[in-house]
Design brief:
With about 260 residues, the protein is α/β, with parallel strands linked by helices. Helices cover about 50% and strands about 10% of the residues. It contains ten helices and five strands, in the order αβααβαβααβαβααα. Strands 2-1-3-4-5 form a five-stranded parallel beta sheet, sandwiched between helices. α6 (about 140-155) packs across α7. It is globular. The termini are far apart. The model is unreliable at about 25-35 (pLDDT under 50).
Protein backbone atom coordinates (compact mmCIF):
# COMPACT_ATOMS: atom_id res chain seq x y z
CA UNK A 1 0.00 0.00 0.00
CA UNK A 2 1.25 3.47 -0.80
CA UNK A 3 1.83 5.36 2.51
CA UNK A 4 0.44 8.49 0.95
CA UNK A 5 -2.86 6.72 0.52
CA UNK A 6 -3.25 5.92 4.30
CA UNK A 7 -5.92 8.24 5.75
CA UNK A 8 -4.81 10.39 8.69
CA UNK A 9 -7.39 11.65 11.14
CA UNK A 10 -5.94 15.02 12.08
CA UNK A 11 -8.82 15.81 14.41
CA UNK A 12 -7.97 12.82 16.66
CA UNK A 13 -4.29 13.80 16.82
CA UNK A 14 -5.19 17.39 17.62
CA UNK A 15 -7.58 16.25 20.35
CA UNK A 16 -4.85 14.11 21.93
CA UNK A 17 -2.38 17.00 21.90
CA UNK A 18 -4.96 19.35 23.38
CA UNK A 19 -5.70 16.84 26.16
CA UNK A 20 -2.00 16.52 27.00
CA UNK A 21 -1.56 20.30 27.04
CA UNK A 22 -4.64 20.64 29.25
CA UNK A 23 -3.21 18.13 31.76
CA UNK A 24 0.09 20.04 31.80
CA UNK A 25 -1.73 23.35 32.31
CA UNK A 26 -3.74 21.91 35.21
CA UNK A 27 -0.57 20.52 36.80
CA UNK A 28 1.20 23.90 36.51
CA UNK A 29 -1.79 25.75 37.98
CA UNK A 30 -2.14 23.32 40.89
CA UNK A 31 1.59 23.50 41.61
CA UNK A 32 1.47 27.30 41.55
CA UNK A 33 -1.54 27.36 43.88
CA UNK A 34 0.24 24.97 46.27
CA UNK A 35 3.32 27.19 46.35
CA UNK A 36 1.21 30.31 46.88
CA UNK A 37 -0.56 28.66 49.83
CA UNK A 38 2.75 27.61 51.39
CA UNK A 39 4.22 31.09 50.84
CA UNK A 40 1.18 32.60 52.56
CA UNK A 41 1.75 30.30 55.52
CA UNK A 42 5.45 31.19 55.43
CA UNK A 43 4.69 34.91 55.80
CA UNK A 44 2.21 34.17 58.58
CA UNK A 45 4.70 32.09 60.57
CA UNK A 46 7.47 34.66 60.04
CA UNK A 47 5.21 37.45 61.34
CA UNK A 48 4.38 35.41 64.44
CA UNK A 49 7.93 34.29 65.29
CA UNK A 50 10.28 36.13 67.62
CA UNK A 51 13.89 35.29 68.39
CA UNK A 52 14.05 33.72 71.85
CA UNK A 53 16.56 35.41 74.16
CA UNK A 54 17.11 35.20 77.90
CA UNK A 55 19.09 37.45 80.22
CA UNK A 56 20.55 36.44 83.59
CA UNK A 57 22.14 38.89 85.98
CA UNK A 58 24.98 36.50 86.86
CA UNK A 59 25.14 34.00 83.98
CA UNK A 60 27.45 31.02 83.99
CA UNK A 61 27.84 31.39 80.23
CA UNK A 62 26.93 33.87 77.51
CA UNK A 63 25.75 32.55 74.15
CA UNK A 64 25.24 34.47 70.92
CA UNK A 65 22.94 33.05 68.25
CA UNK A 66 23.16 34.38 64.70
CA UNK A 67 21.39 33.45 61.50
CA UNK A 68 18.13 33.32 59.64
CA UNK A 69 14.62 32.10 60.46
CA UNK A 70 15.97 28.69 61.52
CA UNK A 71 17.94 30.47 64.27
CA UNK A 72 14.83 32.52 65.14
CA UNK A 73 12.83 29.30 65.35
CA UNK A 74 10.17 30.09 62.76
CA UNK A 75 7.87 27.10 62.33
CA UNK A 76 8.07 25.89 65.92
CA UNK A 77 4.82 25.72 67.89
CA UNK A 78 6.35 27.49 70.91
CA UNK A 79 9.46 29.57 71.64
CA UNK A 80 10.53 26.78 74.01
CA UNK A 81 10.72 24.40 71.02
CA UNK A 82 13.34 26.48 69.19
CA UNK A 83 17.09 25.86 69.36
CA UNK A 84 17.62 28.77 71.75
CA UNK A 85 14.56 27.86 73.81
CA UNK A 86 15.76 24.30 74.30
CA UNK A 87 19.28 25.45 75.17
CA UNK A 88 17.90 27.84 77.81
CA UNK A 89 15.86 24.98 79.29
CA UNK A 90 18.80 22.59 79.50
CA UNK A 91 21.25 25.16 80.91
CA UNK A 92 19.11 27.54 83.01
CA UNK A 93 21.89 29.83 84.20
CA UNK A 94 22.99 31.19 80.84
CA UNK A 95 22.37 34.40 78.94
CA UNK A 96 21.33 33.95 75.32
CA UNK A 97 21.43 36.88 72.92
CA UNK A 98 19.53 35.75 69.83
CA UNK A 99 20.23 38.24 67.03
CA UNK A 100 18.81 36.10 64.22
CA UNK A 101 16.44 37.59 61.64
CA UNK A 102 13.86 36.07 59.33
CA UNK A 103 15.05 36.16 55.73
CA UNK A 104 18.72 36.73 56.62
CA UNK A 105 21.45 35.53 54.30
CA UNK A 106 25.10 34.95 55.15
CA UNK A 107 25.99 38.48 54.07
CA UNK A 108 23.49 39.93 56.58
CA UNK A 109 25.37 38.57 59.57
CA UNK A 110 28.22 41.04 59.20
CA UNK A 111 26.12 44.17 60.02
CA UNK A 112 24.72 42.29 63.03
CA UNK A 113 28.24 41.52 64.25
CA UNK A 114 29.27 45.15 63.71
CA UNK A 115 26.39 46.28 65.91
CA UNK A 116 27.52 44.04 68.79
CA UNK A 117 30.61 46.12 69.43
CA UNK A 118 32.98 44.91 72.15
CA UNK A 119 30.72 42.19 73.59
CA UNK A 120 32.31 38.80 74.23
CA UNK A 121 30.68 35.37 74.39
CA UNK A 122 31.49 31.87 75.57
CA UNK A 123 29.83 30.32 72.53
CA UNK A 124 28.49 31.51 69.17
CA UNK A 125 25.93 29.37 67.31
CA UNK A 126 25.30 30.18 63.63
CA UNK A 127 22.34 28.75 61.72
CA UNK A 128 22.14 30.26 58.24
CA UNK A 129 22.27 29.35 54.56
CA UNK A 130 18.77 28.30 53.50
CA UNK A 131 17.99 31.68 51.96
CA UNK A 132 21.31 31.69 50.13
CA UNK A 133 20.37 28.40 48.49
CA UNK A 134 17.13 29.52 46.95
CA UNK A 135 18.24 33.12 46.37
CA UNK A 136 21.04 31.65 44.25
CA UNK A 137 23.86 33.40 46.12
CA UNK A 138 27.22 33.31 44.36
CA UNK A 139 29.33 30.44 45.78
CA UNK A 140 32.53 32.52 45.56
CA UNK A 141 30.97 35.48 47.42
CA UNK A 142 29.39 33.12 49.94
CA UNK A 143 32.76 31.58 50.74
CA UNK A 144 34.38 35.00 51.26
CA UNK A 145 31.50 36.29 53.40
CA UNK A 146 31.44 33.17 55.56
CA UNK A 147 35.19 33.31 56.05
CA UNK A 148 34.94 36.89 57.32
CA UNK A 149 32.07 36.02 59.65
CA UNK A 150 33.86 33.01 61.12
CA UNK A 151 36.97 35.12 61.74
CA UNK A 152 34.81 37.66 63.58
CA UNK A 153 32.89 35.12 65.67
CA UNK A 154 36.10 33.29 66.56
CA UNK A 155 37.51 36.58 67.82
CA UNK A 156 34.56 37.42 70.08
CA UNK A 157 34.25 33.88 71.49
CA UNK A 158 37.85 32.72 71.79
CA UNK A 159 37.24 30.31 68.89
CA UNK A 160 34.14 28.73 70.41
CA UNK A 161 31.82 28.64 67.39
CA UNK A 162 29.32 26.08 66.09
CA UNK A 163 28.14 26.36 62.48
CA UNK A 164 24.93 24.55 61.54
CA UNK A 165 24.47 23.51 57.91
CA UNK A 166 20.85 23.45 56.73
CA UNK A 167 20.80 21.18 53.67
CA UNK A 168 17.23 19.81 53.93
CA UNK A 169 15.77 22.54 51.74
CA UNK A 170 15.87 20.13 48.82
CA UNK A 171 13.18 18.11 50.60
CA UNK A 172 10.92 21.08 51.37
CA UNK A 173 7.29 20.41 50.30
CA UNK A 174 6.97 24.09 49.35
CA UNK A 175 8.84 23.44 46.11
CA UNK A 176 7.83 21.41 43.06
CA UNK A 177 9.69 18.18 42.33
CA UNK A 178 12.05 19.69 39.78
CA UNK A 179 12.81 22.64 42.09
CA UNK A 180 13.52 20.20 44.93
CA UNK A 181 16.10 18.43 42.78
CA UNK A 182 17.71 21.70 41.71
CA UNK A 183 17.78 23.21 45.20
CA UNK A 184 18.93 19.91 46.67
CA UNK A 185 21.93 20.00 44.33
CA UNK A 186 22.71 23.58 45.34
CA UNK A 187 22.32 22.64 49.01
CA UNK A 188 24.94 19.91 48.70
CA UNK A 189 27.31 22.31 46.97
CA UNK A 190 26.76 24.91 49.68
CA UNK A 191 27.31 22.28 52.37
CA UNK A 192 30.78 21.70 50.93
CA UNK A 193 31.50 25.45 51.11
CA UNK A 194 30.39 25.57 54.75
CA UNK A 195 32.42 22.49 55.65
CA UNK A 196 35.54 23.84 53.94
CA UNK A 197 35.23 27.29 55.59
CA UNK A 198 34.62 25.75 59.02
CA UNK A 199 37.64 23.48 58.69
CA UNK A 200 39.85 26.38 57.63
CA UNK A 201 38.77 28.47 60.64
CA UNK A 202 38.78 25.58 63.17
CA UNK A 203 35.03 25.90 63.67
CA UNK A 204 32.79 22.93 64.50
CA UNK A 205 30.48 22.25 61.55
CA UNK A 206 27.31 20.23 62.19
CA UNK A 207 25.79 18.81 59.03
CA UNK A 208 22.06 18.77 59.72
CA UNK A 209 21.38 16.68 56.64
CA UNK A 210 23.81 13.78 56.97
CA UNK A 211 24.38 13.66 60.74
CA UNK A 212 22.05 10.64 60.60
CA UNK A 213 22.20 7.86 57.99
CA UNK A 214 18.86 8.91 56.48
CA UNK A 215 17.05 12.18 55.90
CA UNK A 216 13.95 12.13 58.14
CA UNK A 217 12.78 15.43 56.63
CA UNK A 218 12.45 13.67 53.30
CA UNK A 219 10.97 10.49 54.73
CA UNK A 220 8.37 12.23 56.93
CA UNK A 221 7.89 15.79 55.65
CA UNK A 222 4.54 16.11 57.40
CA UNK A 223 6.25 15.53 60.76
CA UNK A 224 9.50 17.44 60.48
CA UNK A 225 8.42 20.38 58.30
CA UNK A 226 6.12 23.14 59.58
CA UNK A 227 2.83 23.84 57.84
CA UNK A 228 4.48 26.37 55.52
CA UNK A 229 6.40 23.51 53.91
CA UNK A 230 9.88 24.98 54.30
CA UNK A 231 10.72 25.64 57.98
CA UNK A 232 11.28 22.87 60.51
CA UNK A 233 8.40 22.02 62.81
CA UNK A 234 8.86 21.64 66.56
CA UNK A 235 9.82 18.01 65.84
CA UNK A 236 12.31 19.18 63.23
CA UNK A 237 13.95 21.61 65.64
CA UNK A 238 14.08 18.88 68.27
CA UNK A 239 15.97 16.67 65.82
CA UNK A 240 18.41 19.48 65.02
CA UNK A 241 18.87 20.31 68.70
CA UNK A 242 19.80 16.72 69.55
CA UNK A 243 22.59 16.94 66.95
CA UNK A 244 23.78 20.26 68.35
CA UNK A 245 23.53 19.15 72.00
CA UNK A 246 25.59 16.08 71.22
CA UNK A 247 28.44 18.33 70.14
CA UNK A 248 28.07 20.69 73.12
CA UNK A 249 27.94 18.03 75.82
CA UNK A 250 28.96 14.59 74.61
CA UNK A 251 31.67 15.18 72.02
CA UNK A 252 35.04 15.61 73.76
CA UNK A 253 36.36 17.68 70.83
CA UNK A 254 33.76 20.41 71.35
CA UNK A 255 35.55 23.53 72.66
CA UNK A 256 32.80 24.62 75.05
CA UNK A 257 30.78 22.66 77.59
CA UNK A 258 28.08 23.86 79.99
CA UNK A 259 28.73 23.64 83.70
CA UNK A 260 26.37 21.18 85.34
Amino acid sequence: MNPSSIPINLSDAETTIESILLIIDVFIVLSALKMLWHLSMNRSLANQSRAFSVQHRYPLKKVLILGDSTAVGTGADRPEDTLSGKLAHDIPQITIHNRAQNGARVRDLLPTLQSIGSARYDLVIISVGGNDIWHLSSPAKLERQLSTILDWTNRISNQHVILLGYSNIGSAPLFTRWLQRYLGHRALRQRDIFRKAAHAKHVKFIDLLTADSTDPFQKKPGVFFAKDGIHPSSAGYHLWYRMMWREIVLNPTCPWKPQK
